[in-house]
Design brief:
Strand content: under 5%
Order of helices and strands: HHHHHHHHHHHHHHHHHH
Number of strands: 0
Structural class: mainly alpha
Radius of gyration: 23 Å
């Protein structure tokens, strides 16, 4: 499968968070003198663009293919990465915010595109490990950015623009390779054997994967399992964004780690998440192949692990005081369990509707990313003087949100293919709605409305 991606441009979001929080840009002897409010605006700007492009990205990927939409998204965010130093120096806060919004727009195309590609390439019994390999690329990118960048920044004073140029060039290199070897579907890939192609084509037929002309928005937006996914995604994104944006600040201001130490230690949870994602992906598929549990039960089990593990780790760290080793160990071990959400929650939209995989991922990922917009401001209300007690509130709030959103998912979630995935069902529902409207205008009772599946 040629859709595996290490999301290099995504690493610049973590890199900028590290830079903003390590006195390179905060007026602590660094190049820029930005207020706390300006820093929060810069951090949240990415997510405004990210929200804007999610649904258009999903619709575009379903129309023209995930490969091309993904290529456009990576190109936009890579150009934004290369322009970041210039925007910061020439445009100051406003210029950097504008570039961050553009980068968010590019990255907003990525996950819906990947979901469309996976819908074409990943049968149910292979979805866990393939989804984990693809989606956890962001964590591997974070390991590189946080670990390597911290060391370089400590060794080369004032060399921070070079980091963005290096990661931008890496993004362009990856894009060139992707355009050469990536394919929308198995039918487009000349390197597949006939056996592999027939196996995947059979999956297409069973899942009723077709080019769609009408999107059943009413059925999608009233789908209870989808809203269970969205709520759970909000919880997971909250915990993940706190780790990405607030953990470096906590390590600097409360734990008093140096820049190099901060970068390396911030990378540890991402590394463990990546390892857990790969391992749990194989485990999930093994369970499904041996039919130990149903798909729904398996997705809920691993999603729960990915919620409770980080929540317990965060709670423990909140009460560990200033013991550096204990705090870092609890956070790292706890967050490692979040890797289990890649072969469970992250691929769940594919279970609900392979035909609308891009649209569903756009809704789940887009609404979930609202957390990233508000976290800097909400946590800023609690952390005013960087005291341990104030950070305890931030950690406990994150744990509470993780647990509550997971309970909602356990009640409402499902991995069953929804009836509106079938284009015949969608067409019939449109006919029924038109029939109901026509008869109501003519004063006649609606026909067939009580049993929409009867005429198929």
């Amino acid at each position: 499968m040629n859709s595996t991606i290490v999301q290099t441009p995504m690493t610049t979001k973590r890199l900028l968070s590290l830079k903003v929080n390590e006195n390179i840009s905060t007026g602590g002897g660094g190049e820029f003198d930005w207020s706390e409010a300006a820093q929060k605006a810069i951090e949240s700007a990415f997510f405004w663009g990210y929200l804007l492009s999610q649904v258009p990205g999903g619709l575009l990927a379903e129309r023209i293919g995930g490969k091309h939409t993904l290529s456009v998204g990576i190109l936009i965010s890579t150009v934004g990465t290369l322009l970041t130093p210039l925007a910061a120096r020439e445009g100051d806060v406003l210029g950097l915010i504008e570039v961050r919004i553009i980068m968010g727009i590019g990255q907003g195309l990525v996950y819906p595109s990947l979901n469309v590609i996976l819908a074409n390439w990943a049968p149910t019994e292979e979805r866990g490990r393939l989804g984990a390999i693809v989606f956890s690329g962001a964590n591997l990118g974070s390991v590189v950015a946080l670990g390597l960048s911290g060391i370089i920044l400590s060794w080369c004073d004032g060399a921070w623009p070079g980091l963005f140029y290096v990661y931008g060039l890496m993004g362009l290199l990856w894009l060139a390779v992707w355009c050469r070897v990536g394919h929308n579907s198995p039918t487009d890939d000349p390197t597949l054997s006939d056996r592999e192609r027939l196996h995947l084509i059979k999956y297409h037929e069973e899942a009723k994967l077709q080019a769609m002309t009408v999107i059943p928005w009413g059925s999608i937006l009233t789908c209870i399992p989808l809203w269970g996914l969205i709520v759970s995604q909000i919880g997971h994104d909250w915990g993940l964004f706190v780790m990405n944006t607030d953990l470096p600040r906590y390590m600097k201001n409360v734990m008093h780690f140096t820049i190099a130490q901060n970068g390396l230690l911030s990378a540890i949870p991402h590394l463990l998440m990546w390892l857990t994602a790969i391992a749990s992906g194989w485990w999930v598929d093994s369970i499904l192949i041996r039919k130990v549990h149903s798909v729904s039960a398996t997705r809920k089990l691993f999603t729960t692990v990915s919620s409770l593990g980080p929540a317990l780790g965060i709670i423990g760290a909140a009460y560990a005081g200033c013991n550096r080793f204990v705090v870092i160990s609890l956070i790292a071990i706890g967050m490692s369990f979040m890797g289990c959400f890649y072969p469970s929650l992250k691929v769940n939209p594919l279970d609900l509707s392979p035909n609308y995989a891009g649209t569903l991922m756009a809704l789940v990922n887009g609404i979930g990313a609202v957390s990233g917009v508000f976290i800097p401001y909400i946590n800023g209300l609690f952390v005013t003087h960087n005291t341990l007690n104030q950070w305890q509130v931030v950690f406990l709030l994150s744990a509470f949100i993780l647990i509550v959103t997971n309970v909602f998912y356990l009640i409402t979630g499902s991995a069953e293919i929804q009836p509106w995935n079938d284009p015949k069902y969608t067409e019939k529902m449109e006919e029924i709605r038109y029939d109901k409207y026509k008869n109501s205008v003519n004063g006649l009772p609606p026909t067939g409305f009580l049993n929409p599946m009867s005429a198929s």
